[in-house]
Amino acid sequence: MPGREKAIPHVSGDKEFSNTYQYWKDPESLKKAIKDGLMSHEMNFKDFRWMEKSLEGEMVLEEGLEYFNQKNADGKSCASCHGEDGAELKDVYATFPKYNERVKRVLTGPSQIEVCAKERLQRDDWGPDTRPNSLLAFYVASLADGAVINVDTTSEPMAASYNRGRDLFFKRVGQFHYACSSCHTPPTAGSYLRGQRPTTFFGDAAQYPIYHFPYQLAGDDYSYVFTMQHQIRSCQQLSRMYQGKEGSASMTDIEVFIRASANGYPMSVPVAEYNMNTDYLEREYNQ
Ligand code: HEC
Ligand code: HEC
């Protein structure tokens, strides 16, 4: 698929794709675009979710906090090292994924949590695509609410990962011969697709992990929380691609690409993917 070379690791890169960045670059711009009567797909659907916190999401965060404080057989928990309720992990999620010198690989939020759980708490079953991992990632991400995303793609391993992720994103694969970019760049992004509106990949990471009620992948029991890789897998399933394993090198590369494409944008967690409540559009922003 064409367009790959235009992608840059910053949210303003969207100017070269949908040129809708002006509508959603900050809350004021969004409010203005809504007031001017732009339809959500015309503004690339970078919409209201990001501004409106999810109450249900808040409640699920409590479950993440319970895992955070859950003691292992030695009486240790995440909180033993990272402070009460994770006080010392404030804002760090906005810098993930990052290269870890010690384990010699790029770690996403969920894979850092896996490393800590396994090495430091002897919990071998808290890896990506499990309930504790997803809820912990959601909780730790919420500690970075409002922090500006800043994934450093300048180091050699991170630059290489970003480039591989970008290649994968623009590569046609699977039964339908789609690339991620088939849907997530114009003209498909910016129009309706069976009632859904796929967006360009810029800025999307700002709301992940996300509360995804009422949809979940078969077999899940993660209180409807979707991490970024869970969302990627859901798209792979939808578009009949081979589904990557969460935490694998290739899925990590795609996540690096998408998260870095949100650089410069503030995180907003917890929000809901399907926010059924549209009252606030009338109430607050449409006057
Ligand atoms: C025994 C101490 C210890 C425990 C327990 C522990 N961690 Fe860590 N954690 C660390 C250290 C040390 C690092 C530095 C990175 C590394 O070496 O993995 C770290 C790094 C992190 C980071 C990234 C911080 C940054 O600034 O980049 C996150 C997020 C994190 N841990 C989450 C958790 C979670 C969630 C748990 C519980 C499942 C947990 N940790 C349990 C010691 C611990
Ligand atoms: C057949 C079209 C299609 C393909 C191909 C596709 N997606 Fe999606 N994607 C969607 C739709 C539709 C949504 C949901 C948009 C909505 O309603 O908010 C979505 C949502 C997403 C989101 C969340 C966006 C947000 O605002 O919450 C991410 C991230 C994403 N896709 C990444 C990918 C990746 C990575 C691939 C390739 C592995 C991919 N998608 C392939 C259609 C597609």
TrEMBL record:
Residues 59-262 form the Cytochrome c domain. It holds the Pfam family SoxA-TsdA_cyt-c. The keyword Cytoplasm does not apply. GO terms for molecular function: electron transfer activity; heme binding; metal ion binding; oxidoreductase activity, acting on a sulfur group of donors, cytochrome as acceptor; transferase activity. It is found in: Periplasm. One of its GO terms (cellular component) is periplasmic space. GO terms for biological process: sulfur oxidation. Keywords: Electron transport, Heme, Iron, Metal-binding, Periplasm, Signal, Transferase, Transport. Gene3D superfamilies: Cytochrome c-like domain (1.10.760.10). Its EC number is 2.8.5.2. Heterodimer of SoxA and SoxX. This is L-cysteine S-thiosulfotransferase subunit SoxA.
